[in-house]
Amino acid sequence: MKYLYITLLSVFSVFYGQAQIDFSNISMENKIYNEDILSAKIEKTDINFAIPVIQLGAKNALTLRFDDKSDTPKYFRYTLIHCTYDWQPTNNLQRNEYLGSFEDMEISDYQTSVNTRQFYVSYSITFPNDNIYPTKSGNYIIYVYDDDDKPILTYRFYVIENMVDVSTSVKEADNISLRPSHQQIQVNINTTNFKILNPGRFLKVKTCQNNREDNAIAISTPHRVSGNSLIFDQSDQILFEGGSEFKTFNIRTLKTRMEHVEKHLVVAGVNYTWLYSDKTRAYLPYLDDNDINGCYFVTSDDATDSLYGADYTEVHFFLDAQNLPSDMDIFVYGELSNWNFDKSNKMVYNSHRHMFEAILYLKTGYYNYTYIAKQKNADKGTFMYTEGNHWETSNRYNTFVYYQGDNLDYDRIIGYAEIISNKAIGK
How many CB atoms lie within 10 A of CB 318? Predict the structure, then answer.
């Protein structure tokens, strides 16, 4: 009976219009709204650790995967939402103005877990596809919701056009006092093939570090113009804390201890993992180490099927941070936390161990992570009290050029560049 209902509802939505989005119930960020949803991850199809960026009209795709730990498969739908450069819904556009074919679709690709202690249903969406695809460039949200129109998750991605050539470079800060700890970005935009009048009014140049939004920097006015080049290199204009290389732990197997794992236990049919405790690196020298820029990948050495046989374990993190200012909170941070500050990855003080502790329910695999401090009620985090800051650190920087000239009523992405700082040092 349920499947008949789903079929009829699908037919109805195709021919009679799609559900309206209640923006009061969702936010334009990487966020999970249902406690049964786990391991949401978006990336380029068949390309590990890539920022979710695709080119408009090209044959490239993204894949969103997530697990539902409830007992049966569910009826989920998804749509795409166009956003402004600062991640607000683009109110000037209706969905049929930026989406081709249908405006929303059912998620039909799912599979149940195989021989795992934690049962789950794994869902997968590969897009753009023939049924739903963007027709304009810009920031986008993929929005998944259930048959009651209740939000399940929202995740960010980017659709770009290569109208201008963008080049970026990383150097030591012009400010002498910040040279050991910060990284300064220079952006050069070549407008030979796409003339930009009044860039201070119509242009936004936004740079993100390691997929973070809390410390992203957006500017409009170039420091100087040289021929067909707009150059953004004003002292301290695009300046980031260097941080330290990401830490790593390895839970590809729950049968033996691997990298940074103190112990595994099974209690009442539930997997538990304790990591070795960490200490702050705030005042330590730079340590060169290979990392994957805060990302993770799911796999299992304990199962024949390394994706659907991957199990879940309750992972305990510990950080010795005795001198933390009282107005600061600490978070376990990285792709494993959706690059967000949330109660699920916020650390609390464990008076028994005299350390801060956080518990995350994670799928088996290989993980990068870091600790970041954030002043209460602030938006931006800092490594000053947890990891320390070093010019030498290898960080990934992604720069997006947004344009709203030529009577456009939305933020178009007309250029894009990616660079990894100190790649010879950190990678």
Answer: 19
Task: Please state, in angstroms and as integers, the Cα–Cα distance from residue 270 to each residue in 116, 254, 255, 364, 387, following that order.
Answer: 10, 11, 13, 13, 32
What is the separation of C-alpha 304 from the centre of its chain, rounded to a whole number of angstroms? 29
Instruction: Please report which confidence band the pLDDT of residue 426 belongs to, taking 50, 70 and 90 as the band edges.
Output: very low
* Residue 39 near residue 363 (C-beta atoms within 8 A): yes
CA–CA separation, 427 and 421 (whole Å): 9
Q: Give the CA radius of gyration of the chain.
A: 22
**Closest alpha carbon to 337 in 303, 302, 295, 274:** 295
Encode pLDDT of 174-185 as tens digits.
999 999 999 999
Q: Under a CB-based contact definition with an 8 Å cutoff, are residues 285 and 331 in contact? A: no
DSSP secondary structure code for residue 175 in this structure: S
Q: Is the CB of residue 123 less than 8 Å from the CB of residue 106?
A: no
Please indicate, yes or no, whether the overall pTM of this predicted structure exceeds 0.90: yes
What's the confidence (pLDDT) of residue 19? 62
